Please model this.
Amino acid sequence: MERYCVIMAGGIGSRFWPLSKDNMPKQFLDILGTGKSFIRATFERFLPLVPASNFIVVTNAAYKHLVLEHLPELTDDQVLCEPMRRNTAPCIAYATWHILARCPEASIAVTPADHLVTNECEFQRVIVNGLDFVETNRNALMTIGIRPSRPETGYGYIEVDRESADIIPVKNFKEKPDLETAKRFVADGRYFWNSGIFLWSSDAIMGAFRTYLPDMAALFDQGKADFGTPREQEFISTHFERCENISIDYGVMERSQSRFTVCADFGWSDIGTWGSLYTHAAHDETGNAVSGHAVTVDTTGSVINIEPGCQAIVQGLDNCLVALRDGSLLVCRLADEQQIKHWVERL
Amino acid sequence: MERYCVIMAGGIGSRFWPLSKDNMPKQFLDILGTGKSFIRATFERFLPLVPASNFIVVTNAAYKHLVLEHLPELTDDQVLCEPMRRNTAPCIAYATWHILARCPEASIAVTPADHLVTNECEFQRVIVNGLDFVETNRNALMTIGIRPSRPETGYGYIEVDRESADIIPVKNFKEKPDLETAKRFVADGRYFWNSGIFLWSSDAIMGAFRTYLPDMAALFDQGKADFGTPREQEFISTHFERCENISIDYGVMERSQSRFTVCADFGWSDIGTWGSLYTHAAHDETGNAVSGHAVTVDTTGSVINIEPGCQAIVQGLDNCLVALRDGSLLVCRLADEQQIKHWVERL
Model:
């Protein structure tokens, strides 16, 4: 079996306004100042496991040039363009049918483009073990669980029957919990964060689509003769919009009887919020995460993100966010950052 | 006697960083969004009283082009350039000696370039009365007092003997008071804010320089043959730096025996601080003074000043200042704005 990696890179990351905008979403940014964009780091993290020619990036047509710029190792036909956003199930179906046109028997890792992993060695060990597992257990759908380090209410949780370092069956998926529930989950030891990283064989995911999302499977089957040919994009342009807007979690994982997980611990974060960026970025002596040319005075626990070439003085703020990019400024309390999207709409 | 107006426009307005900077000081800005820069508004305020050809602007050489841009009615020789900043006494001496070379008997109004007046009719009435007074009382040095509307600790005060609507002698000048003293001054009725606007005849101010700042008078007398000729700038370049760095208030007004004031009420502010700008700018329904394209959320009593073409979301601030100009951002508590200068130095 050949190993493939599908990078889902169609998001617009509106929660990181003004750094991420429609024309420059989060996956193409180096928000943490590591020297690499998220998508580049994701690619390099999988590159020891998957040959460059077996990466498939699914994104929006508007971002195709950015993908190829950040991942110059890829060829044009490795970047699949969704005509519109339709959540993760159609995205993964598209990539799966595309891969099957090239390779009848593949094992596939599916990953978001914009997450952080700090322990890449451990990451690779976990993924290799997982790929070995799904290559042996040809109907297994596997999702990588993350050992929770805090009662995070922003993540979904995976429940298992018993604490274990092995790959074991999933008992349940749990929606984002309230704080009390999250605390219970963390204390219990049988609940992991759902990382959104999936491993499976092409047989397993194809079978799951046919069983749990038969309309979507039928839709992509119509294009079977077109996938992997110059007609693929035309087929997608015509038919993709008819896909149900549904996540792979709701559409497949929660319905499957053959799902597995492993409790991993490789320094993962989805960096889905400025607060999580604060957690993962370096702090100065007053507890601020400062990026760019800024003087802070009487300011603590804040994220200051100033674009190169600009400068800032920030005084008198606690647990706030100050971000300046391309003439767009955001000043807000970190605790209220869930509202950013709404404020941007008002603007 | 011919009437002259001297506009002192050499300040750098560092308290309004990042709006005002060395290369664009406050007098050339339209901070309040009136459609006119402060210097333009100052000029237009005096124009019904003084012919355009009798305005003299004293500034720094670096700002000469800005003065002529904002006041295209002036000719090159009406803009006097100080080689360095030397406070108001040398500035006024320079303008006085320059005017005397053109006109042996003048009445002169001296004004800062960057103050706000909202009732121009009343202003003109007060100034005309004052000019009439100093043209009749040829040794009078007059300073315009402002009826205090609040116990401002940032201004100097003028004390008189009795409440009066007339032009009356000054009893004392009072330094910036503490809050308790300022409250007493406001309640008393015999204390006015010192506006920094002066009226006098050329005889009176010349005599006062000779009496109270004889070294400075002697220095300018050396250049008598040069003033009003092409050699004037050369003389100033060589000699100006030897002037004592002293204000007209300390150097002349506090020492004079012939000083007068009037309690005026024409909506004056020196707009010396962001706080005073807040006082004078229009407020939205949540008490914020917003200029530029900005959305405010859970924000009250704040000044938001966003440069044209930029945009901002400001949330969770009370009594703060957010100013963005030319890639320079300031976020601070309004109460601490006296420190801006120091923060800019740190930056």
Observations:
- The interface with chain B takes residues 17, 293, 295, 297-298, 306-307, 309-317, 320, 322, 324, 327-333, 336, 339-340, 343-344, 346-347 of chain A (CB under 8 Å).
